[in-house]
Amino acid sequence: MLYTESEILQYIAENDVKFIKLFFTDIFGTIKSISIQPKELERAFKTGISFDASAVKGFLEVDKSDLFIVPDPSTLSVLPWRPQHGRVVRFFCNIRYVDGTPFEGDMRYILQNVVGQSRKTGYDIKIGTECEFYLFQTDEKGDPTLIPHDNAGYCDLAPRDKGENIRRDICLTLEQMGIQPESSHHETGPGQHEVDFKYNFPLQAADNLGTFKTVVKTVAARNGLYASFLPKPLAGKAGSGLHINLSLEKNGKNIFSDDELPPEAESFMAGILYRIREITAFLNPLKSSYDRFGSFEAPLYVSWSSLNRSQLIRLPAAEKERRRMELRSPDPSCNQYAALALIISAGFEGIKEKRPLPPALDMNMFKARPVEIQGVEMLPKTFTEALKLTEASSFVKTVLPEVTVNAFVDAGGEADE
Known about the structure:
- Helices cover 31% and strands 23% of the residues.
- The protein has 417 residues and is an alpha+beta fold.
- The strands form two sheets. Strands 7, 8, 9, 10, 11, 12, 13, 14, 15 and 16 form a ten-stranded mixed sheet that branches. Strands 1, 2, 3, 4, 5 and 6 form a six-stranded mixed sheet that branches.
């Protein structure tokens, strides 16, 4: 919801707000936070709150380490799990230099720019995410174990599904924060769950995903459990994906709703297929991300088809107004702002270049014979391979600053879980 700064200040004063948490992310997608008192909020809007950027991976060196976070008024939300007397609210923030200019490594700002550029072409993008995660037991000290919370399977019910009440609490908490989960269920792995979200504009979808991960970890901890968004926490079991659904609207119409895909929709998909290997390091930023590919419906080949869950891109069955493409390779360890910026940019490059969409591969890619997939590119086999492709990519450096790309490559994807 859009609020003016004066409306925010009035709300804070009238609703017993005692603490304000300012959220921002590092280049690996880890949420960071600074808390301020209400009397400091007006200053935060005007000049920002300073922090030591040299202490945040991938930002600045110690000799020039001051950056400022500036809250986005549209992201105000009460944290429902904190006391209702002496409330705590949070904002997502943009990052700036002392002179007010945007910090080039701020992935949220980069996504805002990418969305702004895409709108100049006459298109609005809608994003819906499907995020998987695991719930693990904790030991007597409260530290996480690798013992799953239950041994249930896909869409099982309670009491076999021990996470049913936790998913309910997650969804109700999100609704209190103005976020609309559409569905939730137990996933294939033991202790594994999925929550799917109503489509939104890209920046809101990215903010909501950050909120979701915070809520999941908080609700899990309140129940004596540990929530993991690692892509492959258990060998031999299903990995956790972050499936990204994208649709394009022009003049208020979803162009994916036509009975036959129009050229723009085909070229958008073709652009993503063309650049996917170069951007995979940012979509799958951990070594274990690559253990997920090629099993339990996680893709392995650069291919597409309708309905088919073995493909990198598929066109799910849906009523006309909800038709979209689904990208199935990303996992929830990624920086969602960087991931969406790269995916969207690749798609619009495809439209600009009028890239032809290769033929659909209407087969089970996990059981395909070698002759059937001869010549079909594969996703990178390792994180090292993915990093090399990213480092050599001129395309990635048109979307993300080269200094940020270099910092990510040098760190080798040292993302926190």
